[in-house]
Write a structure and sequence with these properties.
Strand order of the largest sheet: 3-2-1-4-5-6-7
Structural class: alpha/beta
Largest sheet: 7 strands, parallel
Strand content: 5-15%
Number of helices: 10
Radius of gyration: 17 Å
CATH architecture: 3-Layer(aba) Sandwich
InterPro entries: KR_dom, NAD(P)-bd_dom_sf, Sc_DH/Rdtase_CS, SDR_fam
CATH superfamily: NAD(P)-binding Rossmann-like Domain
Distance between the termini: 31 Å
CATH class: Alpha Beta
Domain Ketoreductase: 4-194
Protein name: Short chain dehydrogenase family protein
Keywords: NAD, Oxidoreductase
Number of domains: 1
GO molecular function, one term: oxidoreductase activity
């Protein structure tokens, strides 16, 4: 990744923070974007202390103007953009709401921060990606979108919308040399820890449903895999869905 520039959203904590670190450790220059500026500042400070070349930018991906500013700042600092990692997803992730009780506002919050946030960054970064010889976009879906889950309709709808965006754009942008792929991770996170503590029996059932019997490590299992996905070794892969979930969902 030496010399390449990556933007990672939702980079202040959890999976996004680990992905940003994986890219920075491979020599990429990384813009860490997040809605809570203090969190991305902390993540960037940790990487800077290790000698990594990163910047932190407060950015709510649901706000198109904020996304435009973040892309402009990244290009001004690093000279271009090669890699876009659309990890951010707002809404009450992990909540359990019957479909009959789902409100418009709950559903719209998932869509504003997920599919629309992903679209905003893709649109804003498109000119820079067209100038890159290694342009790759990685969007984030979910096994819940692929297979469905009770009481999680809003989240599932949003993630499948990102899947549709990924496939359509992979076809459209291929002529520009831009690859667009989707990953569906199952990674350990503070949210997963909270879920385990609140409902240990259901958590154990979920764990037993993963053939590898564990959640992925955010850095080693997910971050490193995404570095591999954007590398030149997979330069002929686009429009694909990669299940980084220990075998929980096996696509045909």
């Amino acid at each position: 990744m030496s010399g390449r520039v990556a933007i990672v959203t939702g980079a202040g904590q959890g999976l996004g923070r680990a992905i940003a670190a994986a890219f920075a450790d491979e020599g990429a220059r990384v813009a860490l974007l997040g809605r809570t500026k203090s969190k991305v500042d902390d993540a960037a400070a940790e990487l800077t202390a290790r000698g990594r070349d990163v910047i932190s930018i407060g950015c709510d991906v649901a706000d198109r103007a904020a996304v435009d500013r973040a892309v402009a700042e990244t290009r001004e600092k690093f000279g271009g953009i090669d890699i876009v990692i659309n990890n951010a997803q707002g809404g009450a992730v992990g909540s359990s709401t019957p479909t009959t009780d789902l409100t418009d506002e709950e559903a719209l919050e998932f869509f504003r921060t997920g599919p629309l946030g992903t679209l905003h960054l893709m649109q804003a970064a498109f000119p820079a990606l067209c100038e890159s010889e290694h342009a790759v976009v990685v969007n984030f879906g979910s096994a819940i979108g692929v297979r469905g889950a009770p009481r999680m309709a809003a989240y599932a709808m949003a993630k499948e919308a990102i899947n549709g965006l990924t496939k359509s754009t992979a076809i459209e942008w291929g002529r520009h040399g831009i690859r667009v792929n989707l990953v569906c991770p199952a990674a350990w996170s503070p949210g997963a820890e909270t879920y385990r503590d609140e409902d240990p029996e259901r958590f154990e059932r979920i764990l037993r449903g993963i053939p590898l019997r564990r959640f992925g490590d955010p850095y080693h299992d997910i971050g490193r895999a995404i570095v591999a996905l954007v590398s030149d070794d997979l330069s002929y892969l686009t429009g694909a869905t990669l299940m980084l979930d220990g075998g929980q969902v096996m696509l045909r």
